[in-house]
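Q: I'm a student working through a structural biology exercise. My instructor gave each of us a protein and asked us to get a predicted structure, then write a short paragraph describing it. Mine is BCCT transporter. I'm not confident about reading structure output yet, so if you can add a plain explanation after the tokens, that would really help. Here is the sequence I was given:
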Amino acid sequence: MDKRSQDDTANEPNEGSEGIPAPDGPANLIDTDYVIGQDNITSTKFGIDFDLHGKVFTISSLVILFFVIVTLAFQNQVAPIFNAMFSFLTGNLDWFFILAANIFVVLAVVLIFTPLSKVRLGGANATPDFSYAGWFAMLFAAGMGIGLMFYGVSEPLTHFGTSLAGDGGAPLGGAEGNEQAAAQLGMAATIFHWGLHPWGIYAIVALSLALFSYNKGLPLTMRSIFYPILGERVWGWPGHIIDILAVFATLFGLATSLGLGASQASAGLHYLFDTPNTNVTMVVLILGITLVALGSVLAGVDKGVQRLSQLNMALAFLLLLFVIFVGPTLLIATGFFENLFGYVKNLPGLSNPFGREDTGFTQGWTAYYWAWWISWSPFVGMFIARVSRGRTVREFLIAVLLVPTLVSILWMTAFGGTAIDQVVSDGYSGVQDAALELQLFTMLGQLPLTTITSFVGIVLVMVFFITSSDSGSLVIDSITAGGKVDAPKPQRVFWALIEGAIAIALLLGGGLTALQTAVITTGLPFTLVLLAACYAIIKGLMSEPRSA
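A: Happy to help. First, here is the predicted structure for BCCT transporter. I'll explain a few features afterward.
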């Protein structure tokens, strides 16, 4: 790939085009005539400024609006279509999603131990833009928030139940009749879905984006990753298609999380205050929280996303500590290490893509999860890239892989372990019999201060909702603005509203299955995109100077 050396940037002003800082110190910029935003349409209508990539924004927005209108207009007709598509994709391509996720994790881990890990994002002399505390909070809140709240109790309980019964949905065939083995297997299967694999996917995308933007001087869009493969053609239709796919994947992956959050918040409000737990309530919640998210969107990353992320992490940490100290404390403390060991022990079997007999588990859970993470990867990856400038590749990969994984294990151990203990030791079946979105609140109902902790849980879901919408709007706006990171704020408002509209359309058009189908459908083509990106990232890192 053609590149020009930039060895003297340490003595130049740290200013890049359109909000992207130039490298600090030695770096190898790609020699291209493309200028960020050169294909954009810049205009002012009714006092509102616009700065959009004409083709990417137009195609993305029109297709999305068409989807929303059709889904809302033909709710009864589209629901069976969503069901059939979900069954077909997960039934035939579960092996593909599992194999692809394995490739991403292996690449991320291997890179840590190679000399390429000495490359610093943003140039050899770059310094981090955020403290470790702020960085970790944004990594975790943007990547996992609503999902941990929704599945923290329900997934361990579900896998425990299927493993104990030994039915078709049990991971690795289950542990029929053995409560202890079923609990360990249930926790291992849960951690498998929230551990190294999702964060390996995020890490590869984020590292690629950061490298080609901050070190190579390309726009902060998905197309930039493919310059080593496509060359200058990346600025034409091949690049347009990549960015459009990234917009679709991001929007539908995000809408799935927003839909889950709305259903759980609605269930929690019904549990506490006996409000109607209906589609109307969920729609009102999505509309209300989307409007709140607009304020954070307009405030930007530093004031909006970072502050909300830190608030959320503080609340989540307090709720976690409460469950640890008020729940079965000794069981949680020992269970953390037992579950970590169980995860490592069962990891080869759980990540095996071929010859599996537990197809109910791989198709109903793993394929959906991996497609969900892959759909989220442009959003989370681009957001992580934006807040990770100044980190070395090794520092970046270790943090992105291990810190969220260990926190996820602790979270699942505390919440899922407490719920399983209520079933096994206390003989309380209510938590297991409750609907998925209600199981968190049912578990908290068996602990002291139920009203307070359940209310905190609802607030957490809502703030995670806002954080996700906030972060997603910033990312999608950057893609549809040709890589500009400081495009006019009305565009971010537009995408925040679109995210809410898609979540509403999918909930009304088929509920959870519709959300899952949207993720699988958009995740499939984007998996191919990310597999090609693995080659590009290695080639890009090999051309960079490395720190001592």
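A: Here are two points you could use in your paragraph. Confidence is low (pLDDT under 50) at residues 1-17. The chain has one domain: 40-543. It's a good idea to check both against the output above yourself.
Q: Great, thank you!
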